[in-house]
Specification:
Elements lengths: L1 E6 L5 H6 L4 H5 L4 E6 L22 H9 L10 E5 L9 H9 L2 E5 L10 H12 L2 E4 L2 H7 L5 E3 L21 E5 L12 H11 L2 E6 L12 E5 L14 E4 L13 H8 L4 E3 L5 H4 L6 E3 L3 H13 L1 H18 L2 H16 L1
Parallel strand pairs: 1-2, 1-3, 3-4, 4-5, 5-6, 7-8, 7-10, 8-9, 10-11, 11-12
Helix pairs in contact: 7-10, 8-11
């Protein structure tokens, strides 16, 4: 079987973890996957330091031309996997063309239907009508689809042979780790008072792994910045005593898949997270980490982990075990294989 993955880019997290990293495992089951990313992607794949935020829009026309040149390739495959909408423009014409040519699956790992005054919801619903099956990253997204019979919930996972347990950093400065896209650093601002208190009391540091720093509030915190790259994303987390994922309770954030937490847990790093969306499903409070709803509970959870190495070790080991069992490539590849064979007919 040959499967085409029409992805949003190459470096973007969703393209890497919900498409590219699946290919070796699928190949072991006789499924040949081919990536067809839009080039240049408007989602961060341009290797120019000044291209971020609204400046990415300058590359939209080029990505349209790239995508247009890929549409006829659909006939070379047995199944098409549409990783999010094929274009950033409000049109479903590419999806209408390729879904007529081959059986198709649409993948969605964010609540992209909450944007732009309902226009995104309209576009996504049109795409859902065109495809045979839908894969989503959590229950919130599945509820939006509203068709359980043709919807599969498959979390975003990591390769636990690459994300390996790191030893606890021990007696060094208490280090709170955060990794992700720079545009999401804004999620740290509401808990900045708790972070400031904890880091002052422990003499600790906030380690941020991202493509750049954004947010004036970070100037008030002792920050160690590590530039993100695919090569160092695992190694950069090794110094963290704890990994955090704060989220404001918004409709869009309820659709997030808790992927930061899965990255931390695979590295045996205990976690603290806001009880929003999939975070509540990923974190088993009191076992592999804590859920914190306000600054007081964030401070309490972080200080508990700072003061108790045994608690960190227990929570980290439990998280690693959970990541291997439920949030690893080994856990999901059989599900994709069965799904692809069924949808392709």
């Amino acid at each position: 079987m040959r499967v085409a993955f029409y992805t949003q880019g190459v470096k973007t997290a969703s393209s890497r973890f919900r498409a590219a990293q699946l290919l070796p495992g699928l190949a072991e089951h006789g499924i040949e996957g081919t990536l067809l990313p839009a080039r240049p992607s408007v989602h961060g794949d341009v290797d120019l330091a000044w291209v971020h935020g609204l400046r990415r829009e300058l590359f939209r026309p080029l990505s349209v031309l790239s995508r247009a040149g890929q549409l006829h390739l659909a006939t070379r495959f047995d199944l098409l996997y549409l990783q999010r909408p094929m274009l950033k423009y409000y049109t479903t014409l590419p999806e209408e063309i390729v879904t007529r040519l081959r059986p198709s699956i649409f993948d969605m790992d964010d609540a992209i239907f909450h944007n732009k005054l309902g226009l995104d919801a309209f576009r996504v619903r049109r795409i859902l009508k065109l495809v045979r099956h839908v894969v989503v990253g959590n229950r919130y997204l599945a509820d939006f689809v509203g068709e359980p019979a043709r919807t599969s919930i498959i979390p975003t996972v990591v390769d636990t042979r690459r994300y390996l347990p790191r030893p606890d950093p021990g007696d060094g400065p208490f280090t709170i780790g955060w990794t992700g896209g720079a545009h999401n650093l804004v999620e740290l601002e509401p808990i900045a008072p708790a972070l400031q208190q904890v880091l002052r009391e422990t003499g600790g540091r906030l380690r941020i792994v991202a493509e750049r720093l954004e947010g004036r509030f970070l100037r008030e915190l002792p920050v160690d910045f590590v530039p993100w790259s695919p090569e160092n994303e695992v190694r950069a987390l090794a110094a963290a005593h704890v990994g955090i994922m704060p989220l404001k309770d918004t409709p869009f954030n309820r659709g997030k898949c808790g992927f930061k937490l899965i990255q931390y847990m695979a590295c045996a790093i205990p976690v603290v997270a806001s009880p929003v969306g999939a975070n509540r499903d990923v974190v088993r409070a009191g076992q592999d980490g804590f859920l914190a709803a306000d600054n007081a509970s964030w401070r309490e959870a972080l200080l508990a982990l700072a003061r108790d190495p045994a608690l960190r070790a227990q929570a980290g080991a439990a998280g690693r075990q959970r990541a291997q069992a439920e949030f690893s490539l080994d856990a999901v590849i059989p599900r994709y294989v069965e799904l692809f064979r069924r949808v392709a007919g």
